[in-house]
Amino acid sequence: HHSACRDICSLEVNWRRGYCTITRVKIGSWVWCLQCNDDKIATGHGNAIKVWDRSTLQLLKVLEGHKGGVCCLQFNEEVIISGSYDHTVKVWDIQTGQVINDLHHHKGQVRSLKFTM
To answer: Which of 27, 28, 33, 47 is the most exposed place for a label (fewest CB within 10 A)?
Structure first.
């Protein structure tokens, strides 16, 4: 909790001092969820996940396979895990973009997820 407060305060200070910039990226649809690290940005759009290069903002991959909107995702160096309105969780290989596991046991929309490795 305390580190999150420090991060928010640091972001606000950097923003006020003009250290942050806004760059518009034309993506073509609503973004329902996103996560970023130092290298990549992953976003959920409709039934797909888009992976972007964080420094150039170039689209690297489009992962398609959900039958409903992607409403949550999380990634690490190896996988992207996504939850959807289609009641599934998919595990994707981040390098190939292929689904490596498909979990169909949810009775409703998967609106949030968290994994640790």
So the answer is: 28
* Dist CA 24 CA 66 (whole Å): 26
Position with higher pLDDT, 48 vs 3: 48
CA-CA distance, 36 to 41, in Å (whole number)? 4
- Condensed to tens digits (0 to 9), the pLDDT of residues 70-80 reads 999 999 999 99
How many angstroms separate the Cα of 33 from the Cα of each of 48, 57, 100? 11, 17, 21
Torsion (CA) 43, 44, 46, 52 in degrees, nearest 10:
30
Does this model's pTM top 0.85? My answer is: no
Provide mean pLDDT across the span 63-89: 93
